[in-house]
Amino acid sequence: MKKIFNLLIVLTIAVAYTACTSEVDDVFDKSSSKRIEEALSNDKAILTSATNGWLMEYYGNTTYGGYNMFVKFNEDNTATVSNELYGAGKTQTSHYKLEQSQGVVLSFDEYNEIFHIFSEPDASKIGVGTNGKGFEGDLEFRIKSASKDSIILEGKKHASIVKMTPVVAEQNWDTYYSRIETVQNSYSFSRYGIVIGQDTLVATTNYRRFDINAVVDGEEVVVKAPYIVTAEGLKFYKPITLNGKTITGISYVENLEEGNEKWPAMNDASVTVVAMVPPINEQFVNGEWFIAYSNLGPYAKGYWNYVKSGEEAIGEELYYAYFGTDTDNKWGLIFASLAGTSLYGGRLYFDYQLAGDDAIVMYFNKTGGGDGVWYYSNARFNYAVFPFGYNASSARTFRITTDDLNNPSYVILTDQAQPNNIIKLVSNVVYRPFDN
C-alpha cells in the first residue's frame, strides 16, 4: 500500500506540472463573450455580403413543399423580402436580429407580411396547411453553417432545413419569379409515372409533393418527395431512392411536345418521369373537392339549407366541407364545424363504384368518423348527404365533367336521375361554405 501511495503522489505532481507548462496552448484563449461577439459579427458580415440578396429555399412543414423567397440583408439590421406567392414588384422591409442561443440564431423579429405569411396559423392565407397551424413556417432559425457561397438554416420551432444561396448581380428578382411560373406550369398533371428500367412507379401530386407508390424491402409503401420549383425544374427537399436509383429532382424541359410530356431526373437521365392522365372519376375519388353553397344546384341547396339551420341551432358555423379520403383511408364527406375558436371535425363515409371513365355511383354507407355521426344525428347533417346518395337503396349516379382533365380546378356532378341536382366542387380550399 505504501508503494502505491507514493506512486500516486508522483503521478499527481507530474500531471500538475505538465498542465502548468507554457508548451501547451490554451484552447480557450478568448473569453466566451468574445467568441460569441465574433460569431455574431462574422455571420452578419456574410449575410450582408450578398449585394443582390439571397435566394431562400423556404420550407415549413415539409408535407407542403417549399417556396422561393429573396432576402436582402442590410447593415442597419433590416431585411428586404419578396416571395413567389406575392410575385413581381412586391417587397417589404423589416427588422432582423442575430443573437446567441446555443449557437447563432437569425430572427425576423418585426412583422413582415411577405415573410411571416408562412408562419401565420390561418391556413386560408395561402390555402395550404391546417387551420391553427397554417404552413408551419419558422421566423427564427439556427445558423447551421455560413459561408459566402451558402447558408444553411434550421427552423428553431419546426426544424425544417432552409438553404440560402447568393443571388448573382445580374439576376432580376421579378424575372426569376416569371421563370418559376413558367417551370411550374409545365408540371400541370395530377399523376405521373416514374420509369426506372422496366418498372413504372405511379406518383400523384399533393400540394408541392409527390406521393410515389413503391416497393421497399418487399413491402408496398408511399415515398413522399416534397419539392420546390427552381429555374431548372422541381428540386426535392432531400434525395429519394427508388428501385436502387437515387434522384434529387426532375429537370425542366423546354417546349415539351403535347401528348408526349416526359422529363429526365435531375441527376440521372436514365430515370424519366412521364405524364399520366387518369380518368376524371378516378381523379374525383383520389382528390379533395370542396363545397361552396353558391356552387350547389337548386335541388342540393334545398337540403343544405337544413344543414345551415342545424348549425345555427347549436350555435356553430360550418368551416369547411369536402369530399376526399381521411387518414383512415376512408372516402366521403369530411367537414369541420366552428364553435367560437374551437373546431370539431367529422366524416360521413360513402361507398362508390366507378362507371366507365366519367361516371360514379355513390351513396352514404351509414358510418362516420370523428364527430360525424353526432352531427348527422343532432345538427341535421343527414340532409347534407341526401343530394349525394342517402343510402344504398337510393344511390345516385353522377356524370362528371371538368375544365381541364390534365389539371382540373373543379368537377361538376350531374345527377342522371334528377335534372336539378347539379353540383360543382372545386379543388381550392373553401372556408365558410355558406358565405361562398
What does this structure look like?
This protein is α+β, with helices and mostly antiparallel strands and 436 residues long. It has helices at 2-20, 32-49, 113-116, 173-186, 280-286, 298-313, 372-378, 382-385, and strands spanning 54-59, 66-73, 78-83, 92-95, 97-100, 104-107, 140-146, 151-155, 161-166, 191-196, 199-205, 209-216, 219-230, 233-242, 245-251, 262-264, 271-276, 289-290, 317-325, 331-339, 342-355, 359-370, 396-402, 410-415, 422-426. It contains 8 helices and 25 strands. The strands form 3 sheets. The chain has a 9-stranded antiparallel β-sheet. The termini are far apart.
In short:
The protein is globular.
Strand content: 35-45%
Structurally, the number of domains stands at 3
Shape: globular
Number of helices: 8
Task: Give the neighbour order of strands across the main sheet.
Answer: 4-3-2-1-9-8-7-6-5
> Main beta sheet, described?
9 strands, antiparallel
Structural class: alpha+beta
Helix proportion = 10-25%
Q: What is the CA-based Rg, rounded?
A: 28 Å
Topology, number of strands: 25
Low-pLDDT stretches are 1-27
Outline the fold blueprint.
Blueprint: H1 2-20, H2 32-49, E1 54-59, E2 66-73, E3 78-83, E4 92-95, E5 97-100, E6 104-107, H3 113-116, E7 140-146, E8 151-155, E9 161-166, H4 173-186, E10 191-196, E11 199-205, E12 209-216, E13 219-230, E14 233-242, E15 245-251, E16 262-264, E17 271-276, H5 280-286, E18 289-290, H6 298-313, E19 317-325, E20 331-339, E21 342-355, E22 359-370, H7 372-378, H8 382-385, E23 396-402, E24 410-415, E25 422-426
Antiparallel strand pairs: 1-2, 1-9, 2-3, 3-4, 5-6, 6-7, 7-8, 8-9, 10-11, 10-17, 11-12, 12-13, 13-14, 14-15, 16-17, 18-19, 19-20, 20-21, 21-22, 22-23, 23-24, 24-25
